[in-house]
TrEMBL record:
Residues 39-355 form the Beta-lactamase-related domain. InterPro entries: AmpC-like, Beta-lactam-related, Beta-lactam/transpept-like. GO terms for molecular function: hydrolase activity. PANTHER family: D-ALANYL-D-ALANINE-CARBOXYPEPTIDASE/ENDOPEPTIDASE AMPH (PTHR46825), PENICILLIN-BINDING PROTEIN 4 (PTHR46825:SF11). Pfam families: Beta-lactamase. Residues 1-26 form the signal peptide. It is found in: Membrane. The chain crosses the membrane at residues 387-407, 428-451, 471-492. Its main location: membrane. Coiled coil: none annotated. GO terms for cellular component: membrane. This is Serine hydrolase. SUPFAM superfamilies: beta-lactamase/transpeptidase-like.
C-alpha cells in the first residue's frame, strides 16, 4: 500500500514538473521565433531604407504578434505605431471585390452582367470591334484592358474623379479579347468602383465606409485621403540618391477603388481574421468571403501555380494554399498573405514605395512557419536610383568643369588675353558641330522616357520613379546649356598673340 502511494506521489510530481516546464519551453520557442523575425525585419528595413513599417500576425482568431519599426515621419522622428495610417495600395482591390459580391447577394447586380448595363457609354474595342466585358472579367483581370492604362489615370480630387478615370479607357484599345487571358490592369477595379456607385446609388467612398469597413469594425480606416479624419497618417517616401526622400504625390481620387484605402495594422488584423473565418460577430456573410477566394481557372495562371480571385492571388506553395496580394502606391506599399489551413495571416504596411515590403512579408510568413526567409532581396527602384545617381554625379562633375573653364575664358576676356572675333568657315563649322552636340543631348533627354521606359509618359515616371529620375533630365539640360555657352565663348573669341622681342 505504501509502495503504491509512493509510486502515485512520484507520478504526480513528474506530471507537475513536466507541466511546469512545458509553458516555458513553448515560450522559449515562440520567443526565439519572434527574435528571428525582428532581427530579419530590422536588417531588411535598413537595407531597403524604408523609414517605417508596421507588422501584424494573426493566428486562429487572435492577434499573436504586432510590432512597428522606424518612423512615420522621418523629419519629426515620430515613431510608427499600430495606429499609424498608411495607404494600402492594391490590397484595396479585395475590399472592392467584396463589395461587388455583397451587391450581387442583394440582387443589385450579377457578375455575369455586361458592364455596359451599368455604364452604357463604356464601349471598348478589340481589333476595332466592340466587346462585351463582364463584371467577372473585371474582377479577374481578364477584361483585355491593357496594364499600361494606369499611365492615363488623371490627377484629380474632384467628386466625379472616378468617372473621369474610367472615361480614359474610351481612348484606348483592348490588347486582348475579353476572357482569353490574364493581364493585371489596376483600372479594372476603378471600373468596378463606378459599377458599385451605379448599383448602390451611393458614392463609392460612402458605400465602402458604411457597408464594408464599419461592418467589419474597421472604424479607423478611410476610403481615400479626402475622408481622412485622423492625424495618425504616416508621411510617404520614395528612394532618391540612395536614401528615403519624403514625397507627396498628386491626388488620384479616381483610383481609390483600386488602391487608396487608408488603414492601420489594428484594422487590417480584423480584416485578416474575417478572411480566415475567425470573426463570427461580423455583419459580413462568411460565404461571400469564401466566394471571394475562388480563383479563376478559366485562364492560364499568371505565375507558377497562382491564379487570381476577387482581389486576391491564390497560390499553391510548400504543399499549402496561400491567399495574398501586394499593394504599391507612389509613396506607400503593403503586403497581406494568409494560410487558411493554419488560420494564419501576416500583414505589413510601409511608408515607402519598394518591393522590399512584399519580400519582408513573405519572409515573416516563412519564419513563422519554421522555414528560412529569403535574404537575397532586390528592388528595381534601388537599382534604377543607384544607376541614375551615378549618372547625375557624372553630369554634375562635367557641368562643374565647364563652369570653371567658362570662368577662365571670361577672366581672359576681362584681362584682354582674349578678344571677340568674327565667324569664318572653320569657326562656322565648329559652331554647327557644337550646336548639333548640344541639341542631341537635349533631344536624348526629351526622348529619355521613350528609350528606357517604352513610351511611358514623363509625368507618370516622375510620380512613380525614384527621386533621381526627376533630377537627372534637368541636370542634363542645365549642363548642356553650360556646355553650349562655353563652346560659344571659345568659338566667338580668340587668343591675342603676344609678340616676343
Amino acid at each position: 500500500m505504501k509502495s503504491s502511494v509512493k509510486i502515485g506521489l512520484l507520478m504526480c510530481a513528474m506530471i507537475l514538473v513536466v507541466s511546469g516546464f512545458t509553458p516555458n519551453m513553448a515560450g522559449a520557442s515562440s520567443s526565439e521565433k519572434i527574435q528571428k523575425i525582428e532581427q530579419y525585419v530590422e536588417k531588411q528595413k535598413n537595407i531597403s531604407k524604408i523609414p517605417g513599417l508596421s507588422l501584424v500576425v494573426v493566428e486562429k482568431g487572435e492577434t499573436v504578434y504586432e510590432k512597428s519599426f522606424g518612423y512615420a515621419d522621418l523629419k519629426a522622428k515620430t515613431p510608427v505605431t499600430s495606429k499609424t495610417l498608411f495607404e494600402i495600395g492594391s490590397t484595396t482591390k479585395a475590399f472592392t471585390g467584396l463589395a461587388i459580391l455583397q451587391l450581387e447577394k442583394e440582387g443589385l447586380l450579377k457578375r455575369t452582367d455586361d458592364v455596359r448595363k451599368y455604364i452604357p457609354w463604356l464601349e471598348l474595342k478589340y481589333n476595332g470591334e466592340p466587346q462585351s466585358i463582364t463584371i467577372d472579367q473585371l474582377l479577374h483581370h481578364t477584361s483585355g484592358i491593357p496594364s499600361n492604362s494606369i499611365t492615363q489615370i488623371p490627377e484629380s480630387n474632384a467628386d466625379h474623379a472616378l468617372e473621369l478615370t474610367v472615361r480614359t479607357l474610351l481612348n484606348q484599345q483592348l490588347d486582348r479579347k475579353p476572357g482569353s487571358s490574364f493581364e493585371y490592369a489596376t483600372i479594372n477595379y476603378d471600373v468596378l468602383g463606378l459599377v458599385i456607385e451605379v448599383a448602390s446609388k451611393q458614392p463609392y467612398d460612402m458605400y465602402m465606409k458604411q457597408q464594408v469597413l464599419e461592418r467589419i469594425g474597421m472604424n479607423d480606416s478611410f476610403v481615400g485621403l479626402h475622408q481622412l479624419g485622423s492625424n495618425e497618417m504616416a508621411s510617404g517616401h520614395k528612394i532618391g540618391f540612395m536614401e528615403a526622400q519624403a514625397y507627396t504625390p498628386p491626388i488620384y481620387r479616381g483610383n481609390i477603388p483600386a488602391g487608396y484605402i487608408v488603414s492601420n495594422t489594428n484594422d487590417i488584423a480584423k480584416w485578416m481574421k474575417l478572411q480566415l473565418g475567425n470573426d463570427p460577430g461580423s455583419a459580413i456573410d462568411q460565404k461571400l468571403i469564401e466566394e471571394s477566394h475562388i480563383p479563376d481557372l478559366s485562364v492560364e495562371p499568371f505565375d507558377k501555380d497562382t491564379y487570381y480571385a476577387d482581389g486576391w492571388g491564390i497560390m499553391k506553395k510548400h504543399e499549402k494554399q496561400y491567399i495574398f496580394h501586394a499593394g504599391e502606391n507612389p509613396s506607400f506599399t503593403s503586403y497581406f498573405i494568409m494560410q487558411p489551413d493554419e488560420q494564419l495571416g501576416v500583414a505589413i504596411l510601409s511608408n515607402m514605395d519598394t518591393s522590399f515590403t512584399t519580400a519582408i512579408g513573405q519572409g515573416v510568413m516563412d519564419l513563422w512557419e519554421g522555414r528560412d526567409a529569403a535574404t537575397n532581396i532586390s528592388d528595381k527602384y534601388q537599382k534604377i536610383d543607384r544607376i541614375v545617381s551615378i549618372l547625375c554625379i557624372a553630369v554634375i562633375f562635367f557641368g562643374a568643369i565647364f563652369i570653371l573653364l567658362s570662368i577662365r575664358v571670361i577672366k581672359k576676356l576681362a584681362g584682354k588675353q582674349r578678344v571677340g572675333t568674327k565667324l569664318n568657315v572653320k569657326r562656322a563649322l565648329l559652331l554647327s558641330i557644337h550646336t548639333l552636340i548640344a541639341a542631341a543631348a537635349l533631344a536624348l533627354t526629351i526622348m529619355f522616357p521613350k528609350i528606357l521606359f517604352q513610351g511611358v509618359p514623363w509625368t507618370f515616371i516622375k510620380v512613380w520613379g525614384p527621386m533621381t529620375i526627376s533630377v537627372f533630365p534637368y541636370s542634363v539640360i542645365a549642363v548642356s546649356i553650360i556646355y553650349y555657352v562655353f563652346g560659344l565663348l571659345l568659338i566667338f573669341t580668340k587668343k591675342i598673340k603676344v609678340n616676343s622681342k
